Amino acid sequence: MKTSSLILSIMLLVLGAHPSFAKKDCVQFSAAAHIMVHKPLEHLALSTYGVFGPFGPLGGIGPVSKSIFSPAVFYKLLLVWTGYTPKPKPNGPLSRLGPLWNFGPLNGQALEFWRYTLGARNVYSVFGPFGPLGPLGPLGPLGPVGAIPRKGFVITPEGHYKDPSTGEIVREITISDEQRTETFNIVEQLSPSYALELSKSFALDASFTTWGHLQEKGDFQTYQLTSQKNQTITIVAVPLDYWGALPGRPLSLRVKDEDGNLLASYNSETFVNHAIVSVSAGQRLKIEVESQERDANYRIVSVGAGKVLPIKD
User: Fold this and answer.
1) Fewer CB near the last or first residue (10 Å), C or N of the chain?
2) What are the DSSP calls for 7-26, one per residue?
3) In this structure, are residues 35 and 234 in contact, taking their beta carbons and an 8 Å threshold?
């Protein structure tokens, strides 16, 4: 019993939820969003060796990577992945019993667990269930390794999902029950060239991921999106090492409005830079990723929450 209690205490300590951490042990890391981050959680998760770094699930050896060391490559080489994956069922991940609905981490008692584990403010931060690692992100049921490809949609070379029965591009999924109906953005993994093509006309939506390369220090790439809803958007610039053996080069992240006015700017060389902004339906954003050193690879991840989160509460 003592052993299990000790293990639980260590887990809570790592997550920054141990009761010994008082307000004075917190730092304001994301100024624009006023997110308070516990120091242990900050150092572990936001370091270049943490969950948002090149060795994490969004990095060069993660399931959405195009690296030859990505698990997705081995899935395709060793077996017909869809043949080993159960077809969508009434109680599957895109159903009312899945992670997007009442029994998932975005609602009810599960959300209260996140509140306790991360703290009332951090539940809506980059670490929480509404962030890139949650069910709304690229690793969840709405992403390229989730339930969407198993729903019968075809992934185009550009990264869109196409309904083969109609030939139409699908960018949203709707779930409903007797009480409510909600529409979720599919997280498209777009090819670099196509993402930039959509960006020219602000045709990117709030939920997407792509990757790129910056040759010289100070080079930057801009991604322009339009939010379809009033919602909070979490954006992460992941430094990549495609071989999965070395840390990525540090990146800077800026978020601007359509007119170029700066909304958020993060330039840490030690931590993975991210931004959390709330926007209105139809609002346009410019996301800029800049290299702090030569020869920088990166992944940009943008996740729309589908609603405005009380990030300042």
Assistant:
1) N
2) HHHHHHHHTT--TT--GGGE
3) no
In this predicted structure, what is the pLDDT of residue 118? Answer: 59
Residue of 200 and 88 predicted with greater confidence = 200
Number of domains in the chain: 1
Q: Is residue 2 part of a domain?
A: no
Distance CA 75, CA 66 (A): 13
Read off the pLDDT band of 30 (50, 70, 90): very low
Query: CA-CA distance, 297 to 70, in Å (whole number)?
Result: 16
Asked, for residue 219, whether it belongs to a domain, the answer is: yes
Q: What pLDDT digit, counting tens, does each position of 37-71 carry?
A: 334 455 566 777 788 888 888 887 788 877 666 66
Counting every residue, how long is the chain? 313
Return d(Cα 261, Cα 212) in angstroms, integer. Answer: 24
Please give the single-letter amino acid code of residue 76.
K
Tally Cβ neighbours within 10 Å of residue 60. 27
Considering just the CA atoms, what is the radius of gyration of the chain in Å? 19
Residue 39 has a CB neighbour count (10 Å cut-off) of 13
| Residue with token string 């100024």 | 31
pLDDT tens digits for 131-190?
A: 899 899 998 888 887 766 666 788 888 998 888 888 899 898 888 878 888 888 999 999
CATH number at residue 127: 2.60.120.380
Phi/psi of residue 133, each to 5°? -95, 0
Whole-number Å distance between alpha carbons of 307 and 185: 12
In a domain, 15, yes or no: no
Two tokens, residue 171: 């960018």
CA distances to 29, 35, 125, 255, 309 from 32, rounded to whole Å, are: 9, 8, 12, 10, 14
**Does residue 13 form part of some domain?**
no
In whole angstroms, what is the distance from residue 149 CA to residue 276 CA? Answer: 28
Q: What pLDDT does residue 244 have?
A: 61
Q: For position 37, what pLDDT does the model report?
A: 38
CB 158 within 8 A of CB 194: yes
Question: Which candidate, 221, 197, 220, 195, places its Cα nearest to that of 208?
Answer: 195
